[in-house]
Amino acid sequence: MKLDFHTHGKLAKKLPFSTEYTDWLFGEAREAGLDALCLTEHFNTLQFDELYGYLKSCCRREGDTLVTKDGLRIFPGMETDIAEGGHILSIGSLEDILKLNARLEPYKRPGSFLPFSELLDLFDEYDLIVGAAHPFRAGGHIPELPEEELMRLSFLDLNGKDVAADRQRAEELTGALGRRLQKPVVAGSDTHQAVQYGCIYTEFEDETASLSGLREAMEVGSYRITVSQGAAFQVKTAGILKKALKEIHALGGDYVSVLLTGGAA
After folding, report:
1. Tens digit of pLDDT for each residue in 106-160?
2. How far is CA 73 from the centre of its chain?
3. Fewer Cβ in 10 A, N or C end of the chain?
4. The Cα angle at residue 2 between residues 242 and 261, in degrees rounded to 5
């Protein structure tokens, strides 16, 4: 099972949710060779609940996952900012992720983010797999947090954007922290659009549709990480495309139509 641990279902947090864009994303994920992904949408993205409501309506349920008509397996999740600086990934059932997102409503604006330990206390009330997103990215302070708090994490994210920028640094620092904490290091592309799919992924020996199965496979290490030879190009191209599509929207155009049909902006 080729799984991407860190993905998004929208182009950007402040842009409106588009069913057509999300459908395109997931279709392209399958085209890129992925069997599954963790949809770790930003917890404070516009229309978070509508995104998941749409997936609930058009996907079939299988275990703890949602499966698209193309057979892409989706583990629901989200990416949450912490007060200290940094992002935390959580993966759970659809119902738990929606409940958690609603409970985090008072903490979604900069300056009101929960401290790491308080966020983990909240997460402990649910059956979740919790990890540190891109722990060594500039502006984050996750590696500086107390070790007894870091030990509460389930995994670390070897992030596609960071690997594309400096693969040796990303692998060495993330790997060293994983060994220190004795936590699995798994891979996520961090993509908001399709060009970036496949730049890095985690391949498990067996397929699973349950959180418990995924957790067990991570803990025993029955997986390998693959980095595309073109990862740097994919991430750079994805960034350019994202910037261009956001500019189309800012100018009043329909970026989804431009992307999917070549229609006039």
Report:
1. 999 999 999 999 999 999 999 999 999 999 999 999 999 999 999 999 999 999 9
2. 14
3. C
4. 35
The pTM (predicted TM-score) of the whole model is: 0.95
- pLDDT of 19-34, one tens digit each? 999 999 999 999 999 9
What domains does the chain contain, in order, with CATH numbers?
2-235 (3.20.20.140)
CB atoms inside a 10 Å sphere around CB 58: 14
CB neighbourhood size of 147 (10 A):
9
Measure the CA angle with vertex 148, ends 189 and 117; round to 5°.
70
What span, in angstroms and rounded, lies between the C-alpha atoms of 80 and 40? 9
Which residue carries 């994303």 as its tokens?
25
Distance between CA atoms of residues 133 and 142, nearest Å:
9
